[in-house]
Design a protein that fits this description.
The protein is α/β, with parallel strands linked by helices and about 400 residues long. The protein has 2 domains: about 1-55 and about 305-395, Aspartate Aminotransferase, domain 1; about 70-300, Type I PLP-dependent aspartate aminotransferase-like (Major domain) (Aspartate Aminotransferase, domain 2), CATH 3.40.640.10. The chain contains 14 helices and 17 strands. It has helices at about 1-10, 45-50, 60-70, 80-95, 105-125, 145-150, 155, 175-180, 205-215, 240, 285-300, 305-325, 350-355, 380-395; strands spanning about 25-30, 35, 40-45, 100-105, 130-135, 165-170, 185-190, 195, 200, 220-225, 250, 260-265, 330-335, 340-345, 360, 365, 370. The strands form 4 sheets. A 7-stranded mixed sheet has the order 4-12-11-10-7-5-6, sandwiched between helices. The longest helix is centred in the last third of the chain and has 22 residues, at about 305-325. The chain is globular and about 60 Å long. It starts with a helix and ends with a helix.
Length: about 400
């Protein structure tokens, strides 16, 4: 392992906080577990940061990848491929979208949403309409446009000048958003659950109010579902938990079952705004990644799968809240479905390191919050084991 770490420092640009005394060298994964190079097993409640929603190496996803790779790895989007069309069909049938656009990541999907919103905004409200209102504490990606959309100054520092046309309202404060609307506004973009911001769910009243606000002013409502989508909430999209349909939504992370893919879904008038020449992606809708994503979608849509996720989410929340009453130093337990945050008084990074030493992988965000993103295939016994480890670490 030490040789790998030395080579990593020598050859890879240092953009990730891989601490030599903490970061694992993961060799393989199966289901809810991963193994390091020494053969030690870990219960994985990080899941590639909400990517491996079906666990590691899910048989249906592996089979889809292998079967498609034997037939066709890539072709230009000048041509048709069945996996791309099949995935689009499944998304349209089970989400608010009328049409979809495929790319490679969440940031790219959000970029596409911003471009579409600006083009339609100018058509609806005049050439001045370009501004997008996002939320403080949000996270939308790391391109220049999406770090500007991100409502956390720490991600923007050092990369100025930033892209103009973004404003920031207070999350779950409808009046704050309404006060930012003017003739230049074209869209509102929010995460139904703020992930990188600390696992903060939206309130139903907030999202419903944003829908009404956008309808009143002719604005597009965009849901960034990159982390909270694809079943993690107990519904296919987190917006469905609240009964609110956006005009645009973005997906990535878990959509490909471990392979990189992003998607923009658009409904109504917004579905026909982009035309040839407006936007494109060389690898967007790649046959292998789309085949994997079809397998993911079909698995999530199996009878009883999402209702079971909802049940496991309630079980995890109950266990964490019970722990919160028994362990000093826990400030708050919050989240939605199998996307939970535990805010503590101490150092979350140190607590996460302690959990790793005991065979549990979770991650720390914002200095004080432990984020839990277990596979959607998690069982009660895995949740019990994880919560016990966290409790032991926090008590110590």
């Amino acid at each position: 392992m030490m040789e790998t770490k030395i080579r990593e420092r020598q050859y890879i640009i240092n953009t990730y906080n891989r601490r030599p005394d903490f970061t694992l060298h993961i060799k393989r994964g199966e289901g809810v577990y991963v193994w390091d190079e020494k053969g030690n097993r870990y219960l994985d409640f990080v899941t590639g940061l909400a990517v491996n929603n079906l666990g590691h190496c899910h048989p249906a996803v592996v089979a889809a990848i292998c079967n498609q790779a034997k037939k066709l790895m890539h072709t230009s989007n000048l041509y048709y491929t069945e996996p791309q069309v099949k995935l689009a069909e499944l998304l349209v049938q089970h989400t608010p979208a009328d049409k979809v656009f495929f790319c490679n990541s969440g940031a790219e999907a959000n970029e596409a949403a911003i471009k579409l919103a600006r083009k339609l905004g100018k058509k609806r409200r005049g050439e001045q309409a370009h501004a997008v209102i996002t939320a403080e504490n949000s996270f939308h990606g790391r391109t220049l446009a999406t770090i500007t959309a991100t409502g956390q100054p720490k991600y923007r520092k050092g990369f100025e000048p930033l892209m103009p046309g973004f404003r920031y309202g207070r999350f779950n404060d409808l009046e704050s958003f309404a006060g930012l609307v003017d003739d230049e506004t074209c869209a509102v973009m929010v995460e139904p659950v703020q992930g990188e911001g600390g696992v903060y769910p939206a309130t139903a009243g907030f999202l419903q109010g944003l829908r009404q606000l956008c309808d009143e002013h002719g604005l597009l409502l965009i849901f960034d579902e990159v982390q909270c989508g694809m079943g993690r909430s107990g519904k296919l999209l987190a917006g469905q938990v609240y009964g609110v349909e956006p005009d645009l939504f973005t997906l990535a992370k878990a959509l490909g079952g471990g392979l990189p893919i992003g998607a923009l879904g658009a409904k109504g008038e917004a579905a026909d705004v982009l035309v040839p020449g407006d936007h494109a992606s060389t690898f967007g809708g790649n046959p292998v990644t789309c085949a994997a994503a079809v397998a993911v979608m079909e698995t999530l849509l199996e009878s009883g799968f999402l209702s079971r996720v909802e049940k496991m989410g309630e079980y995890l929340a109950d266990k964490l809240r019970q722990m919160g009453t028994a362990v000093p130093g826990i400030r708050e337990v919050r989240g939605l479905g199998l996307m939970m945050g535990v805010e503590i008084e101490g150092d979350a990074a140190a607590a996460a390191a302690g959990c790793q030493e005991k065979g549990l992988l979770i991650n720390a965000i914002g200095g004080r919050t432990l984020r839990l993103l277990p596979p959607l295939t998690v069982e009660e016994e895995h949740i019990d084991a994880a919560v016990q480890v966290i409790q032991d670490v926090l008590k110590s």
